[in-house]
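Input set for joint prediction.
Command: fold jointly, output tokens.
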Amino acid sequence: MSNIRKVAELAGVSVATVSRTLKSPDIVSPRTRARVLAAVSEADYKPNLMAVQFRSRRTRNLVVLVPTISNTFFARVIGGIQQAAQQQGYSVLLCNTLGREDAERGYASMVTTRQADGVIQLRAYNPFAADAYADTALPMVNACEVLDSPPCPTVKLDNRAAARTLTEHLIDLGHRRIGMIKGPRRSPLTRDRVAGYCDALEAAGIALDERLLCPGDFTPHSGFNAAGMLLACDGRPSAIFCESDEMAIGAIKRVKQAGLSVPGDISVAGFDDITFASFSDPPLTTIAQPAEAFGRQAVSLLIDTLEGRCESPRHVILPFELVVRGSTGSKP
Amino acid sequence: MSNIRKVAELAGVSVATVSRTLKSPDIVSPRTRARVLAAVSEADYKPNLMAVQFRSRRTRNLVVLVPTISNTFFARVIGGIQQAAQQQGYSVLLCNTLGREDAERGYASMVTTRQADGVIQLRAYNPFAADAYADTALPMVNACEVLDSPPCPTVKLDNRAAARTLTEHLIDLGHRRIGMIKGPRRSPLTRDRVAGYCDALEAAGIALDERLLCPGDFTPHSGFNAAGMLLACDGRPSAIFCESDEMAIGAIKRVKQAGLSVPGDISVAGFDDITFASFSDPPLTTIAQPAEAFGRQAVSLLIDTLEGRCESPRHVILPFELVVRGSTGSKP
DNA sequence: TTGTAGGCGTTATCAG
DNA sequence: CTGATAACGCCTACAA
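tokens >
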């Protein structure tokens, strides 16, 4: 491996001159520059980034904490993160946490051990809680599912408004008993969406029936099971609002398995607008989220934080859009 | 940030002793060890990994080159990679290449610039082709879609046998005109699967009809479009073999849109057995691949290569399984 | 414009 | 068993 010293010898200059030639070519004389560049290419010299990072005390690595990479929504977010990071000269260290807080803390410590400069957390948990970051800004951005009192910049959807919009769509179709397949209890994201659901019911003068709220875990399987519960309860809902398209796809399967039709007997709506949403049968009515934008925004906020630039707003709300397809229809 | 020197002062020993206490506690006297450990915790000392990496000339980072992270099959592979890497003390630098070779070469150069120790490439392209790695083993493992003359360890499926098995299943159901929605032309993976498809046809005495081979790009959209082509061709197939579940899901949508039923009029089979395969309507007959195992195997092969251990076989073939569900049925 | 030299934090070598 | 010291490769005052 050729290092800067070899190049210097080859060019007959000092290492400082080589370094300068590479970093600010204009402050060395044209003749020297030419000689150095020739030596660089002759030696096939590539700066050792490990050394550069060590010296500059910055790795330009970002840790991404994702609950499950197999979730197609998160996969898109990560795609956005990767793209933005690369554009700004950063690399992405991917960590699949499966929602385990000890794992998250472990990965977050990659920042304290200087393997990475900052963290993008896609879940509502602060893995630095124990650490002291009194003096400097917490090197973290919280995106998608966001803490209630975030100690750092955030990127999220107005989940409450989105859920309200979707619920209103169902109410407009004549539905009065609307089931909801939620995310895990205690999640701020789910709480906000339930609030939006309640907002819509209340505005329409529909009483809340707690039995129509079933928890899931965002997977198709959990949607399938939760739909089974809803079908079994007396006063069966005529519409089901799922907190993710994956659960909606599971729910539709369950509804069909019960010999009912979607949306003929029961309307089903999802959330996220994943690719499969439009290929489902029937195609899913859903709330589209700008998944890649979540990732890109998170990256710029984090890099702003890391580099001390904080002009940009610290708490970003991204827009959603109601996408009406065939899985929802008038109340039978 | 407290460094080893501070700890040494605090404990009243030399930095060497601190380093030794942390690395091999048994070679320092119990008294010293206690003093050092006390100082370590008092100073809340965390070794600076950048420095460690710099000195050891190893980052313990692995670059993963993935064509599209949004593909659920690759997402699972990455999950396996991440899990195995973490267990072995490595981190994963994720790079979404979108199949662009310049991007792949750029990311691969993270190894030559010492940001990472090795590369896991999930596509049939050698991003190091230009580089000279004569003396030492190429720090790469090629998994999933594998080069024909791989310059490194590989992990793959016996794609030819798998495609043959699936095609035979369709032939057993009485199908004689079997369409195939392939991957991109020129891909070794697709070529092998087409070969397996041909093997099965030939064994059954069915002549190959080139018009029944349609290329796609593994997305549901491309499956949808390709199915449209197949439906339009004269001598329409009674079964369609898709090279990915995602394309199969797209194909099913197209078949239904044409007013035909699956499998009543046309059988459709996929490949991969993604989660959505069993939630499709009808549920997909497919070839199950051990996605996470691809990732785990790739990681161990790569680490073996990097650490000079090469006992394990260099070219691993992973098992597949035919999963028969409702999307395939007897020829009408 | 160019060279010299110190230091980033750690570990390994070599004495004591 | 422990301490002093020299690297690792690079950048940047400071000096010439």
